[in-house]
Design goal:
By secondary structure, the chain is of the alpha+beta class. The chain contains 13 helices and 14 strands.
């Protein structure tokens, strides 16, 4: 049964088709949703030439994404977070007006002097009418808008506008579901790590649920951090730490590792080694070497002379107890076990030796071409002496 009422026609047709499509393919992408919506509106006679979705999410680097649909093609862009709210493109845009008013806005492009860059570009491309709606998200704290433009000579009719409004109400919850999922994954990736975050997202959150994973382990720590923090201002201390973590963190990520913990001025990272222990150790070593090349930036960032700040790294290969520890209601996803303890002690030992990077014999055996034996040492808390290796002079 169909209805002649524009809103009911959209609800009966679009909502039903969307529900069937989602049931058939599972969670669609932003691009698939917008394409489905634009084509569906065209099928019922709404002259959509261009459709656009802009959704702000939570990510340390990106502010969100935009998806543009035109003539059956979609184009996606991710926007950088830094400066987005103050950028001229945002301040002088219909999106800002919708954010501030929470009301739909309409612009008859063919009858106005389009001063906003977005509207001017649409008009120059032949657009004659434009309407932008806030997406009806439960969470109203972030930007979530959808817009439609047409080249139809008479623009959108009153019937078209009603259909568009109802279509936005129909599609909104589906876009919000995608946004919430993306935010959850971004936050887990940011605060827990991609591999660990994936495990948490999959529901592996039982306390005491540990899995032994063979891994190359990297433990790094700044030297004399307490004294440095006494000399530096609070902002400079944070700037120094950010630069230090970036110098080592970027090569860790680039080489396939995952930072599990920031421990004050130190960090713990693992490189999965189940499939290829030698490749995992090589990746960890490459990260350490690349981080060393970047390290002079740490002192420069806070106006200190080269060599004023030092650090140490311990490297080991072994089984890591990987999983959840904590209270019943506050868990930490971490790595524990004898292998992690040994790596930490190697890093501690570097404070007493003229070497920045120290590795265990187990680790060195997987990268024998670049490691040289140093000596046996007693490490705190380790029963037997440990043979320690250092980097060769060519590294």
């Amino acid at each position: 049964m169909t209805s002649d009422t524009p809103g009911e026609a959209v609800l009966e047709g679009l909502a039903e088709r969307l529900a069937l499509r989602v049931a058939g393919i599972g969670a669609p992408t932003y691009e698939e949703l917008l394409d489905f919506l634009a084509r569906g509106l065209s099928d019922i006679g709404v002259p959509v030439w261009r459709a656009f979705v802009g959704i702000e999410t939570l990510h340390p680097v990106q502010s969100g994404r935009t998806v543009t649909w035109s003539a059956g093609e979609t184009d996606t862009h991710r926007r950088e977070r830094e400066g987005t709210a103050d950028s001229e493109a945002y301040v002088n845009s219909p999106v800002r007006i919708v954010d501030e008013t929470s009301q739909a806005q309409r612009y008859r492009l063919g009858q106005m002097d389009a001063r906003m860059p977005t509207l001017r570009d649409l008009k120059d491309s032949g657009g004659l009418d434009y309407v932008i709606h806030p997406l009806p998200f439960i969470d109203r704290t972030r930007t979530a808008v959808i817009s439609f433009a047409t080249r139809a000579p008479d623009g959108f009719s009153d019937r078209d506008l009603e259909r568009l409004a109802v279509a936005v109400a129909v599609i909104g919850p589906h876009f919000e579901r995608l946004a919430v999922r993306e935010i959850a994954i971004n936050l887990l990736d940011t605060y827990v790590g991609p591999r660990s975050g994936q495990r948490v997202f999959e529901g592996r959150i039982d306390r005491g649920d540990l899995v032994a994973l063979p891994s190359a382990i990297l433990f790094a720590d700044l030297r004399d951090y307490t004294a440095l923090s006494e000399r530096l201002s609070g902002p400079d201390t944070v700037r120094m730490l950010d630069t230090w973590f970036e110098c080592l963190g970027e090569p860790i990520t680039r080489n396939g590792g995952e930072i599990l913990k920031f421990l004050g001025d130190g960090l713990l990272a693992v490189f999965a080694g189940e499939a290829d222990p030698a490749a995992a150790c090589r990746a960890a070593l490459n990260a350490a070497i690349e981080g060393d090349r970047c390290f002079p930036r740490v002192a420069e960032t806070v106006g200190l002379k080269p060599g004023a700040i030092d650090y140490g790294i311990g490297l080991h290969y072994g089984d890591v107890g990987y999983g959840n520890v904590g209270t019943r209601t506050r868990l930490d996803f971490t790595a524990i076990g004898p292998a992690v303890n040994l790596t930490s002690r190697l890093q501690d030992l570097s404070k007493r030796l003229p070497h920045t990077v120290l590795a265990s014999a187990t680790f060195a055996a997987h990268v024998p071409d670049v490691m040289i034996r140093h000596a046996s040492h007693h490490l705190r808390g380790i029963a037997e002496p440990v043979v320690v290796y250092t980097l060769g002079e060519d590294c």
